[in-house]
Amino acid sequence: MSNLSKQFDGVPIPEGTVIRRSGGIGHLPGDESRSITKMLPIETVKRYREYDREGAHAQGEHSEERIQEIAKELRGGGVIKEPLMLEHSTKHQWGYLGEGHHRLAAAERAGLTHVPVFVYSGASGWGPGERKKKGIGAPLTFDRSGINRFEGDTYQPEELHPGHFKELK
């Protein structure tokens, strides 16, 4: 039995991964699954990390142990159950990895090429704005096609499909 589930954007998401879904807004046009989870290349996601969680950026004394534990599980056929979270600000056109630094490091060590990701847009944009000033993260340009149906509409859902961002397509 395969541990891969349905394909989203041509890359299969491993069975057991939480597939985040939108209530109708945020997913890609024509995507009946309403998925806002996408498998992204590890090299792409690494551009957005704030911490590498290794060496000087380790989080606490158990950071290395946690990375090794996750990597071992992944090498043994486990999956990243909870998608990594990129936080985005339309105002600043910037994003950073808000959650998932250990999982990202472990996935790379385990030899994976892609990780599950969803994008969260905070209402204030404070996090990405401050990180942009410090050079943490990377550009993340939101493309409204398929989101807004009315000219001049500035509504943006909190959770968006990564395919709505130029840098994540």
Task: Write up what this structure looks like.
The chain is α+β, with helices and mostly antiparallel strands. The chain has a domain at 4-46 and 83-100 and 112-168. Helix content is 21%, strand content 22%. The chain is built from 4 helices and 8 strands; from the N terminus they run E-E-E-H-H-E-E-H-E-H-E-E. The chain has helices at residues 42-46, 63-75, 101-109, 126-134; strands at residues 4-8, 11-14, 38-41, 84-89, 94-99, 114-121, 138-139, 159-160. Strand 4 (84-89) and strand 5 form a beta hairpin. Helix 2 crosses helix 3. The longest helix is centred in the middle third of the chain and has 13 residues, at 63-75. The two termini are 30 Å apart.
